[in-house]
């Protein structure tokens, strides 16, 4: 065969490889949706950083496709070297020393599949309480709702944690206005950038006008807080819950069009899951809405590691969530959860935005049916809204010296890694860092590809030490990416054991 013919054949194979395998993935993915995953399982064990795990039909398909994509093992080099792959993965990674209370530092990164990425994240210091908060937000149907959470939730959390006396003083000065940076300091963004975003998202003409008409926004949050029966500070769990639900109520209300559709409508029509950890002293609170996840990594006395979930995914696999919805909508048990989705459509059973599952029937019909040219949810199923809430489930944990780190991540990570695998990877990463600190570079026998724990987790979600497969995943054509991987956002918060020991 001539060189030209080989090139033509290779081009044809390259052109059709991803569509063919993508169709296969979509087909078996649909089978998985209808529950066939439970009918087939096998036991598999992977590399050093992985643990044995039971694989279902979808996972088996991924392994078969993996072999197809990778091809027969041979001397051929992957399309990207491990170093080149790392350079791509490190594009959005960040590390920040905090040294506040029990928090030593954090590392974060995100890797996009959608264009633009629908995930968002934020890390911030609450100036009035000296607590630190960390959040990851997983958008669906678009990025707009997740971005609202990134920009507005920090202030809602900060205001909800104010004491009654601080709220009273603030109310007296509401006419003068206030800015987000009066209460929140982002660990990543300088004040000028925070002010610009605050002005754009909170004081923009259209939004501020709507907030005055609908009585939404931070000013009315302060008024609502003052009406609550508490002395001193509201309990932290209640504060976080109120911040979540108040912001979601505002997003849903502000989405109602006034003459024309605007950015507020887009924020409400899209949706987002969120997990936020708030750490003050030794108290760690996790507020979870949807299927993002928080997992605590702790070292046992024998040196082994314990993975403790501090959130539970709110999907149809969570029977408590299914029962909650069935009790809230009696007589609708046959369709409130259908095909493991809310009303047969939405996978998370709690989320921000998603007004199509929250608005009353009149607004739903009058606005959404006209906007989309037909009903979003069949009227025969849309009987007793709202079907969706952003109210979080709160878990409180009292930090101990053996608690070493907290992983917060969107479901793009947890679809691939178990809690135990993720904690084991971060533990191994820390051990490797410790070895690197004890030896000069010449003494290190193996090249260290990642220097950020979040990037390390993302790499292993894409194939880990299988450099050829990681390279293939990075080069999936844009139109097929969502068949292979989701947006992934990861934040790893590291604790100061010495500080925790001093509190004993």
UniProtKB/TrEMBL annotation:
Its Gene Ontology cellular component terms are: mitochondrion
Q: What class of enzyme is it?
A: hydrolase
Q: What is its EC number?
A: 3.1.3.43
Highest taxon in the source lineage: Eukaryota
Q: Please give the InterPro entries that the UniProt record associates with this protein.
A: PP2C, PPM-type-like_dom_sf, PPM-type_phosphatase-like_dom
A GO MF label? [pyruvate dehydrogenase (acetyl-transferring)]-phosphatase activity
Q: Which Gene3D superfamilies match?
A: PPM-type phosphatase domain (3.60.40.10)
Q: Which UniProt keywords apply?
A: Hydrolase
Domain PPM-type phosphatase residue range list: 102-495
Q: Where does the secretion signal sit in this chain?
A: none
A Pfam family annotated for this chain is PP2C
**Listed PROSITE patterns:** PPM_2
Q: What is this protein called?
A: [Pyruvate dehydrogenase [acetyl-transferring]]-phosphatase 1, mitochondrial
